[in-house]
Each structure stands twice: as structure tokens, then as C-alpha cells.
Amino acid sequence: MTTQPLPLSRAAFLTLLFTACLFGANHVAARMAFNHGLDVATAVLVRSFVTASVVAALVWQQGVSLAVTSRQRGFLLLIGGLVAIQSLCLYAAVARLPVALALLTFNTYPLWTALFARLLYNHRPERAVLLTMPVLLIGLALALDVFGAASGLGAAGQWSRIGAGVGFALLAAAVFGAALVYTQHEVARVDGRLRTVITMGLVGLLALLVVALQGGLHLPQAAAGWWGLAGLTLCYGTAFTLMFTLLPRLGVVGSSPILNVEPVAALVLAWAVLGQSIAPVQVGGALIVVAAVMTLGLRKK
Predict the structure, then answer these.
(1) Which of 159, 178, 188, 216 has the smallest C-beta neighbourhood within 10 Å, fewest atoms?
(2) pTM attached to this predicted model
(3) 136-164 burial, b for 16+ CB within 10 Å, e for fewer?
(4) How far apart are CA 142 and CA 150, in angstroms?
């Protein structure tokens, strides 16, 4: 039996749009903090533990059931590990690329989701995914300026500048795609708030291990960096809290394609706050990527 997505109310639409902007602002704030001495593992550690603590308070206050099966427990641990890798890699990409380009590259995760669904559960990708795939990749190629035409550096020069960041963003997209597939097939019946607490707690613990291995916390060295750390924590935590408290009451079931305007929000905020800008052809590519991902999200299932 298939269900059609419910039409969004104005309040739900505006809340989703605000949530997408918060997610984008989180990455802009992170880049500001990275520019002033914060490292990736410390950022993930602080962000994850604060978010887990806030959502855990909601779980306790709302009396959410804590019951999970042994199978679900194992997959929650696996998903937590995957999200930890995704978090570290995405922030590593943000530290090396213009924020919007890092997020656009990460937005290839629907393609990775289709791939892992095929490999892990033998689900054939939908025709819409296959048709959208080349469009998304063309848009990404334009946004990243893969041939170095807009930058004037040529392909080799451009890839020497963006290669590491693109690699981290693609790895983040891949492991996030796998995490989504496991979430859908193995732990979908676990309450989303409880999943968030467990996942963010595990991410924080793994980030703590990385921090210990690298010799301790690397905190900001200037006031702007501390503002960035506070901003990324506040924006990320608020966005997640909205997703699991207010949005379900507004009739929004699951994630919405509106959230995929995050790279556009990040593009505007990074220009205003960090002075980052990209060429017009790259902006066009960015809009193609966002449109392709939203088209996939809006398709009837």
C-alpha cells in the first residue's frame, strides 16, 4: 500500500525552511571556528554531546519508550559509527572547501542510498533515481568547476585545490547513504527521538576517542572561533530539536525535500559572513543539484 505525502501547512513549510537555514548556518559557523583554531573532532564532540543531552531531556520529559530489540541495538551501534564518520568527514570537507560546495557534494547521498539499497537489500533503484543521476552529476561538475575554467587554474590546478575536500564530502555522502538504508530497513520502528539520542551519543563518544588520540581538545584561539563553536552547536542542536518535536506536530512525516535548500542557505550565509563567493556558472550548477535532489524528494512513492 502506498501513501501520498500530505500537503504542507504554511507553518510547516516555514519551519522546514528555517530548519534548513539552521543546518546551513551550522556549517558556516563551523568554518568560522575552523579558521580560528578549532579542529574537526572537537567540533563534532561538542556538537554531538550537547544535541544528545537536549534530545535526551525531551525523551525523558515526553516519556518515550526505551525498548529496543537486540538486533536493533546492534544496528543502532553500526549506524552511530557511520554517522560519526559522516560527521567528521563533512566537517573536514567544510574546513577545506567553500561551505556551499562541500554541502552540494554531500548532497549526492541519494545516489549512494540507492546504491547501498541495491547492494545490501537487493532493491532496484527507481526509474526517477536513474533519470536524475546524470542531471545531479552534471550540476555538481559545474558547481565544483571540475575543469578549472571558472577559476582559470585548469583541471589539474583546480583538483589540487579542491580534491581533498571533495573526497571527504563524497565519503561523508557514501556513509550517510548507508546509514539511511540501515535506518529504514532495520531500526525504523525505534522512535526518532531515541534514535537521535543513541546516535549522537555514540558520535560524541567516537569523537572523544579521536580527540584523545590526537592529544586532547583543540579549542578556538580567538573570540570569533568561540562564537563559531557556539553558533554551530546552537544551530545544529536547535535544528535537530525542531525536526523531532515541532515538525511532527505540524504534520510533516519524515524528512522533507525542502530541507535540501540547505546548500543554497549556506551559499548566501557564507557570502555574507565569510566573504566566500563562487562563479555564476557554479551557482547555476548548485541550483541544478538542489533542484535534482528536491525532485527526488518530491516524487510520488
Answers:
(1) 216
(2) 0.89
(3) beebbebbbbeebebeebeeeebbebbee
(4) 9
Q: What angle do CA 240, 199, 204 make, to 5 degrees?
A: 95
Nearest to 271 by CA among 117, 19, 101: 101
Query: Chain-centre distance of CA 154, in angstroms?
Result: 30
- Positive or negative CA dihedral for 222, 224, 227, 229? negative
| pLDDT tens, residue by residue, 185-203 | 998 888 888 998 999 999 9
Rounded to 5°, angle at Cα 102 from 151 and 267: 75
Q: Grid coordinates representing 167? A: 573526497
CA distance to 82, 182, 278, per residue, from 177 (Å) = 9, 9, 27
Cβ neighbours of 74 (radius 10 Å): 13
Residues of the chain with pLDDT under 70: 1-9, 244-257, 298-301
258 secondary structure, DSSP code = G
Q: How many CA atoms lie within 13 A of 196 on its CB side?
A: 24
Rg of the chain on CA atoms, in Å: 19
CA 214, distance to chain mean position in Å, is 25
Our CA angle for 187, 189, 195, nearest 5°, is 60
